[in-house]
Structures are given as structure tokens and as C-alpha cells.
Amino acid sequence: MSELSNLTTCIATNLDSCTKTSIKNEIRAVKDIIVYMCSEEGQQVVLDLADSSCANDPLIETRMEIMMMGCLEDFQFGIQMAQLEAYFEGREFNISEVCPFIDELHVCIVNNGAEMCGPAMGSFLSSIWGIASRDQFTQFGCHQEAAVTRRALKRAVPMLLKRAALIRKYRK
For residues 81-113, b (16+ Cβ closer than 10 Å) or e, as one string? Predict the structure, then answer.
């Protein structure tokens, strides 16, 4: 735990030296995900996931990535269709029209994660989404960015599952 604490302190101390906002936001999200996973709420989710059907699934990372890619494909297709609709209606596509598709992406990832691994995974993914998307999607007039959020989820799930495996190991 001390190493994670040192890491989050290091990130917080040096974050302002990042000049590119997108990188700063992504690094802040990683730090905040670590803080969340070490919080009482995060630790409870880890404990709940230690007992889930996915805790012993060696392919869960691959299955989660495939699920997230499917959700992202639906997200991208929806945006493309909205752009075509705007074109055929003779109007300019407004970037804020992306926001409902971002909400659908969130629901897709959380619901599919919960279906795969139970409600604890849904809760975890929703919390991570909230953290990872807090500073994102501003260019759309929303508060999220799909690629950054997906990368944060991709990083967080393996960390969570490793921690769940350790908890399960030491429970015995």
C-alpha cells in the first residue's frame, strides 16, 4: 500500500509539469483510480469481486476488452449515423450531438460488465467511468472522452482482478 501511496503522491506533485491537457487528464485519472481502489468503497468492491465468477477466469481481461470494443464500435457507428443524418438533412453536425452516444457507451460497458461478472463489476466499472471521464469529453460539451475512459478501464480491470486474487489467496 505504501508504494501506491508514494506513486499517487508523486503523480500529484508532478502533475502540473504536464503541458498537454489530455495527458494530464489521463494521468490524473490513473492516480484517482488508484486512490479509489485503496478507499473503503474500492476495497469493498475488490472483496465482492474476489467472490465473483470472473475472479478465476484466466480470460477475463480478453473478454472485457472484446466487450468494450463491441461497445465502442456501437458508439462509433451511432455517431457516424448521426453525422450522415445531419448531412442528409442539410445541416452541420453539432459536436454536442455526441453526448447521448457517450451515455450509451457508459451504459453498454457497465451493463455488459455486470452481466459477465455480476453487480460488483458493474459498480466498479461505473465508478471507474466516473473517475476516468470527469475531466474528459469537454470538446463535445460533455464531460468524457471514450478513448481515455476505455484505456483507464482497461488498466483498472487487471489491477482489480490481481488484487481480488490476492485477497482470495489470503482468505484461505
Answer: ebeeeeeeeeeeeeeebbbebbeebbebbbebb
pLDDT tens, position by position, 90-138:
999 887 788 888 888 889 999 999 999 888 888 888 888 888 776 666 5
**C-alpha grid cell, residue 73:** 464500435
